[in-house]
Every structure is written in C-alpha cells, then in structure tokens.
Amino acid sequence: MNLILFSIITLGGIACISAIILYVATQKFKVFEDPIIEEVEKLLPGVNCGGCGYAGCKNFAETCVTSETMEGLYCPVGGKNTMSAISSLLGVEFAEMHPKVSVVRCNGTCSSRPRLNNYNGASSCSIATMTYGGETNCSYGCLGYGDCVTACQFGAIAVNPETMIPEVDEDKCTSCGACVKACPKQIIEIRKKGHKSRRIYVCCVNEDKGGPARRACKVACIGCGKCEKACPFEAINITNNLAYIDDSKCRLCRKCAPECPTNAIWELNFPARKEENISQ
Which of 19, 151, 181, 246 is 20 to 30 Å from the Cα of 157, by its Cα? Predict the structure, then answer.
C-alpha cells in the first residue's frame, strides 16, 4: 500500500514539476503577435487558396500588417472590397489591380483534334501526363480529366462533355490560381479580365512546328508570325513556334485575329465585326 502511495506521489510530483517547466518555457519563449493581424485575417475570405502568393490568409494578414506599403499585396478572392477594408483598417492606401480571370489556352475539341485511341488509366491529368501522351497526336493539349475542376474551390470551372475542354465561369472565377497549379500541361493561365470582359489570346500551347502542329490539331498555332507583324503595339511574340499575346501591352485592337490562318487567336465578348454584320 505504501509502495502504491509512494508511486502516486512521485508521479504527481514529476507532473507538477514538468508543468512548471513548460509554463516557464512558454512564458520565456512566447512570440508576441500584433492583435491587428487577427483583425486583418477576419476581413479575409479564409479559403487559404494561395492566390495572393502567400501561404494562406494568416501569412497574407501578417505581411499586410508588417509591410510599409500595400504595393503588390492583393487578395483575388476578396477583391477590391476586402482590400479597401484592410487598407482602411491599417490606414494605408492600396493600388487597385486589374481584375483577372483564368483562361484555358486549348481549343483542341474533338472535332479539331480527333481521338486516335482510348485511355483506360486513372482519370487524372497528372497521372496520365506521367505515363501517357494523350488520346490524340497533340501531346500539348488538354487531357480533359478535370484536375482543374477538382482544384477549384469556387465551382468556376467545368469540363464540357462534348468538347472535353474545361470552360471557366468568369462570374465565379476569383483568379486564385488553383487551377493553374493543378494543370500538368500548363494550359491554364491567369490573364486580365479586360474592359467589359473583352480578351484576346492565343488559344493554343502547341510548340511543334507548323506542319506537325496543324496535323495534330486543325486550330493549332503554327508560328507563322502573321499576327506578330500585324500588331502595332508589339504585344505579340513568337517563341518556340508559338505565338503569345502579352496582355499588359495588348490594346484590344483586334488586328491580329483576322491574320491567323488557323483561327488560333480568340476574341471574347467583342461585338461582331463590321464585315460580319454586312454579310448577315
């Protein structure tokens, strides 16, 4: 009995001493956190998507509080209203950024890029990319298994069952970039949403030379350079047989699109061209 009592007292004493040591260590090494950080964090959406470029909302809030200016700091999910609330709380102005949206740069639909075989592996773009070139001759194109759909927390992207190409709902898209990270083919890009949601971009990522690219997909960019010559703002360049439109230089003049022999340049949400109106 005495042995049991002695054991209980000994263990209790060890527990008390350990608790005291832990308390002293906690007080000695505790890190002070500015209470404003918590207030800023409460203003954020809390989705921790990483679209701001930081490791979650907590890290973004800490950066906002500790930075001297708000330059380069922007929450794409919360947008202007959230950033205005944060800047008002901190008493610091923020530079308003152009709204952005995810863009799927592949137009290789079933009619333009016919399937040559059937894939029976896991329905995952990342897995298929490691083991398989795809069901068509274009090894650059979208596989259509929906990794981007799974990654999107806002239901802003879905694979069209007829074309097997993902489509973005720009009203739901927050430009967080989760779909961009999920796409192993690097087909999805964050671009300026544009005035009245008008955008011009090359809807292709195929870097093969003209002949092979065109044989793989009817609407592939063949790197002919006609669009580059037509652009008066030097917004287009040809790299690795592929044209790319820099949205920071593009003025939406639309002179490039009619020059493209494969219709690889997309114009979204523009009014019909005058010649189209006449023909109608």
Answer: 246
Give dist(CA 269, CA 267) in Å, integer.
Answer: 7
SS3 of residue 44 by DSSP: coil
Task: Find tokens 């109608």 and name the residue.
Answer: 280
Judge whether 52 and 24 are in contact, CB under 8 Å: no
Stretch 226-245: mean pLDDT: 96
| Cα distance between residue 268 and residue 193, in whole Å | 10
**Which residues are paired to 158 by β-bridges?**
167
- For residue 257, report the phi and psi dihedrals to the nearest 5 degrees: -55, -45
Q: Flag whether pLDDT at 31 surpasses 70.
A: no
Nearest-Å Rg of the Cα atoms of the chain is 27
Which is it for strands 199-202 and 188-192: parallel, antiparallel or unpaired? unpaired
Tell me the C-alpha distance between 137 and 114, whole Å.
Answer: 8
